[in-house]
Design brief:
ten-stranded mixed sheet; 38% helix; 10 strands; 8 helices; single chain; alpha/beta
Length: 302
């Protein structure tokens, strides 16, 4: 089931954007993005972003050395873009692929492109790469991009079995993630598992107290009602999606991490329950981007 809206990310011209750096992690991201682009009939746009390349005429020995070095870096980046294009075509032969060598800041470039992208895809790990390593670029893009950002990670990121799993915190700021999760489950024709936890704390994490282990009167009934309320409108819009509901007292990240071993995609919101824009990522989202065993989609409003 495909949903249509005025949202720029759903425009028929919005491409799947993937950032690369030539590492194994970015190659995995390219393959994942290519297959998704083929499934959704989208163009794939591959970006290699690097800091400004010397382009002026050298005026002294240092300028000449810097110029030659940066030209070597540019040539290497162009080769990596060509290789990534080949990898995308091998994974999805019929897709349309475009490439871009940007001389801007990697994070800023991808954040800018995210405004008109169907979604942005990045690799999760790497050694010395610009875009694929789990560091400042990945976290900055996951935190500040528009729309959805997928971190491709896990031992089998191309897994086509298992459900889509969404973390539901019960707040209004989490609505875009719920909507994206329903859309993904519908597109993939799989079950949606909605996991809701009353507290973001891990078991025993509050000053060594075990108070969360104690029975809480009416907890399950109240939190189940809250979860049902958050899902109600979406189940009406996506009647083809079977939904399983899980309510926990605490530990959403641990439960979602467990699900990531068998899920084909985890979907989470970009901020915590309070929705403070100053926060980079909600604690659960931040942790899952670094530790989940399947691709993680972080969904931003707008």
């Amino acid at each position: 089931m495909t949903q249509h809206s005025e949202n720029a990310h759903r425009s028929t011209s919005a491409p799947v954007v993937v950032g690369i750096d030539g590492s194994d992690a970015s190659a995995a991201a390219v393959r994942w993005a290519a297959r998704l682009a083929a499934d959704r009939d989208r163009e794939l746009h591959i970006i290699h972003a690097m800091n400004p390349v010397a382009a002026g005429t050298p005026h002294n020995a240092y300028d000449a050395f810097a110029f030659a070095t940066m030209q070597d870096i540019r040539l290497a980046a162009e080769r990596e873009l060509a290789a990534a294009s080949d990898q995308a075509k091998a994974a999805a032969p019929d897709i349309s692929v475009t490439t871009e060598l940007s001389t801007g800041n990697p994070a800023a470039t991808l954040i800018e492109r995210s405004a008109t992208a169907y979604l942005v895809v990045l690799g999760a790990t790497g050694s010395t790469g610009i875009l694929a390593h789990l560091g400042s670029t990945l976290l900055a893009v996951s935190s500040h991009a528009r729309g959805a950002v997928v971190t491709v990670r896990g031992p089998d990121p191309d897994r086509r079995t298992g459900p889509v799993v969404v973390g539901v915190d019960g707040s209004e700021v989490g609505e875009p993630a719920i909507g994206a999760a329903f859309a993904e489950a519908s597109e993939r024709g799989v079950e949606l598992v909605a996991v809701h936890a009353w507290s973001d704390l891990s078991q025993g994490a509050f000053g060594g107290s075990g108070y969360l282990e104690l029975p809480i009167a009416g907890f399950e009934e109240a939190e189940s009602a809250l979860l049902a309320e958050r899902l109600a409108g979406w189940t009406e819009r996506f009647p083809d999606v079977a939904v399983r509901r899980e309510v926990e007292v605490f530990g959403p990240r641990e439960r979602l991490a467990t699900w990531s071993r068998t899920a084909q995609l985890l979907v989470v919101g970009s901020r915590g329950r309070g929705g403070f824009r100053g926060l980079l990522l909600g604690s659960t989202s931040n942790w899952l981007v670094q530790h989940a065993d399947c691709p993680v989609m972080v969904v931003h409003p707008g």
